[in-house]
């Protein structure tokens, strides 16, 4: 089984060909392809972590859609003072499909 660990949006994701992965918003149109930098490549028994060898590895992904994450509610409260503050947040996300690992 071939899979790669890629750097995407400040995190690392384990991907293989055909996987749908949700990442932080990427600056690309839906339907376009992007390249993700590989941190590690596993090809059967062979594990590649060398920066020189990984510079030749290309992980391409196709942007499927842009979406927004689940709403989180931030509520700050201080006892006995009457202070409370509510705030919401939704993350900007992109769903990509891994096209190839070469």
Automatic annotation (TrEMBL):
The keyword Ribonucleoprotein applies. GO terms for biological process: translation. GO terms for cellular component: cytoplasm; ribonucleoprotein complex; ribosome. It comes from the Bacteria. GO terms for molecular function: rRNA binding; structural constituent of ribosome. The keyword Metal-binding does not apply. InterPro entries: bL21-like, bL21-like_sf, Ribosomal_bL21. Keywords: Ribonucleoprotein, Ribosomal protein, RNA-binding, rRNA-binding. This protein binds to 23S rRNA in the presence of protein L20. Belongs to the bacterial ribosomal protein bL21 family. PANTHER family: 50S RIBOSOMAL PROTEIN L21, LARGE RIBOSOMAL SUBUNIT PROTEIN BL21M. Part of the 50S ribosomal subunit. Contacts protein L20. This is Large ribosomal subunit protein bL21. It comes from Nesterenkonia sedimenti. The gene is rplU.
């Amino acid at each position: 089984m071939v899979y790669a660990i890629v750097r995407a949006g400040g995190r690392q994701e384990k991907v293989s060909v055909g996987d749908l992965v949700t990442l932080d918003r990427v600056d690309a149109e839906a339907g376009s392809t992007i390249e993700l930098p590989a941190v590690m490549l596993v090809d059967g028994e062979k594990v590649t972590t060398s920066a020189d060898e990984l510079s030749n590895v290309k992980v391409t992904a196709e942007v499927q859609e842009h979406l927004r994450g689940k709403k989180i509610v931030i509520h700050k409260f201080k006892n006995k003072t009457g202070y409370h503050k509510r705030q919401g947040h939704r993350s900007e996300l992109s769903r990509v499909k891994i096209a190839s690992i070469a």
